[in-house]
Amino acid sequence: MGAARGYTLRTLVIEIAAILLALLFLVPFYFVLVNSVKSFADLLMNSAGLPKEFVWTNYPKVWNVINYPKAFLNSLIVTVFANLGIAVFSSMAAYRLVRHPNKINNLIFGLFVAAMVIPFQSIMIPLVKVANVAGLLNSLPGLIICYFGFGISLAAFLFHGFVKAIPLEIEEAAIVDGASPYGVFWRIVFPLLKPMTVTIILLNSLWIWNDFLLPSLVIPDASLRTIPLATSAFFAQYTKQWDLALAGLVLGVTPIVIFFLFMQRHIIEGITAGSVKG
Amino acid sequence: MIQTRRKKLSEWVQQLYFVGPALFFFVLIVLIPFVMGMYYSFTNWNGVSNEVTWVGLDNFIKIFTDDANFANAFGFTVKFTVTAVLLTNAVGFGLALLLTRQIRTRNALRTIFFLPNVIGGLLLGFIWQFIFTKGFSAVGEATGIGFFNLPWLGDAQTGFWGIVIVSVWQGAGYLMVIYIAGLINIPNELIEAADIDGANFLQKLKNIIVPLIMPAVTVCLFLTISNSFKVFDVVYSLTRGGPYKSTEPVTMDIYFEAFTNNRMGLGAAKALIFFLVVATITLIQVVITKRKEVQA
Questions:
Q1: Taking CB atoms and an 8 Å limit, are B130 and A252 in contact across chains?
Q2: Least CB-CB distance to A125: which of B40, B110, B142?
Q3: Domains: count for chain B
Q4: Interface test with B, best of A42, A186, A275, A276 (most B CBs within 10 A)
Q5: What three-state secondary structure class fits A239?
Q6: With the C-alpha atoms ordered B135, A206, B276, A131, is the resulting torsion angle positive or negative?
């Protein structure tokens, strides 16, 4: 749009306006960062300005209180294994559903699609009961299995669209060369799905890493807390102790922000691709 | 004969191998709880005892005739959804229009506008709790602007707008990305032709840009409507539904009903109504906006 016109005064005005708007978007981060290195008195007297003196001790205190390495590790384990399972199981299912569209498989695909409109909160009550009976409560593998269930329908739907675009001739050639149906999937099809796999893993990572309600319902044990759970418990304990709380928030937010800054091109491309398919 | 039987068996093994795991976890985690939820909504189960008594439509009758909390929560959710959907889409679309200009800081700005979206609602709510209660009052003292000196999060009005502000700040960047993808697909010739015909910006917006980005509008409306209806984390950490339940969305009413009041049956009935409303509204929206999609 308007590509032909060069850099005019009008564009400069727009650019300045956009930069000011971006600074406005960043103001909350400024508040959190500067106040996380103030003493409590300094923070109360002077919330907007720079610190009178830098108080770094807030960070080690919070680090220990919320047992940050443990919470980080729990979040990492859950995110990694949930992602692996979702990507593997849903790509396998999508492949079969596309290549063998019989009545049963179409019904299964229909169920996956229909389930995407079910809000989590409308099934969370019986889910806790089911998780209890199935022995999934209070364990990281249990939480990971819950993510399998919630992640598979959307991922299978996205893979489904992608598999349809893979020409059948490639698979036929492999079969002629003596590949088994399993070999065809793992050696030929699965590697071809890589762009969609990356998209699904990145989008699911943001969801799972930040998720609060599901883990809060199935993980009562303090030692298994993920970062959002640990932060929430910390806030309940240290209400209005903003010097510590803000340092805790910085610690909580940092890993996912770093992840985003490294992966942002793929994440933004993934959203674009995912939304076009959806 | 044997060969066809063996082939049939092999087909079944493959079906089980490829579809089995996905279907198993899906049925266990989504389908069974969904069906059980429907059953519980007709019972008075309290979540603890094994005694589950069928009460017919009692829960639904109670919800519709004698449950001020649910009615208030529903009203809040609808009001919030309408406001947040309109504002988030307006801001997201506006940012997309800005960033499809030939400005030099485009990529850096796109990163900044998207950034709030990667942080979960829970942490964002806590961050903004500080901004509203401490940051705003500091700015208000320094500048004397009345807006910042309001009792932020302290009453129903400022609580509502606080949640709206955080939701827009969080969601606009995501929609911006989708709108940008729509905007850069508009053929330049169409805009140039309109320029030659002397169309002003609003005319171009109404007659060319909006009709051609309807697929993006469909997606963005779907995302914002369903996310706004499902709002929970931000409210939980920002106001916890307060003061006096004035900012409590339906999701939180269901949550408290089930896990604080231990009325699982009543909670399940509310959850079923909630599901039906969200599913119906999002389906209607997708059908309507899909119909408006045109080819360039």
A1: no
A2: B40
A3: 1
A4: A275
A5: coil
A6: negative
In the predicted model, residues of chain B with pLDDT beneath 70 are: 1, 295-296
Report phi then psi at A48, rounded to 5: -90, -30
What's the token pair of residue A161?
């669209």
Nearest C-alpha of chain B: how many angstroms from A154? 11
B7 lies in a domain?
no
| 8 Å CB contact of B30 and A11 | no
pLDDT tens digits for range A31-49? 888 888 887 777 777 777 7
Give residue-wise pLDDT tens across range B207-264.
Answer: 888 888 888 888 899 889 989 999 999 999 898 887 888 889 999 999 998 888 888 8
The amino acid that residue B236 corresponds to is Y
The CATH code that applies to domain A66-237 is: 1.10.3720.10
Backbone angles phi, psi at B54, to 5 degrees: -70, 125
- What is the number of helices (H) and of strands (E) in chain B? 15, 0
Q: Nearest 5 degrees, angle CA B154-CA B160-CA B165? A: 105
- Cα–Cα distances in Å, from A131 out to A79, A85, A143, A188? 19, 18, 9, 36
Could you list the residue range(s) of the whole structural domain that residue B264 is in?
68-291
Burial (CB < 10 A; 0-12, 13-18, 19+), residue B150, is middle
CA-based nearest residue to A224, from A76, A70, A82, A63 = A70
B46, amino acid identity: N
Q: What residues does B15 pair with on adjacent strands?
A: none
Angle at B121 between CA A213 and CA B109, to 5 degrees: 150
List all residues 6 or more positions away from A29 whose beta carbon is below 8 Å from its beta carbon.
Answer: B115
**For the packed helices A68-99 and A103-115, what is the interaxial angle rounded to 10 degrees?**
140
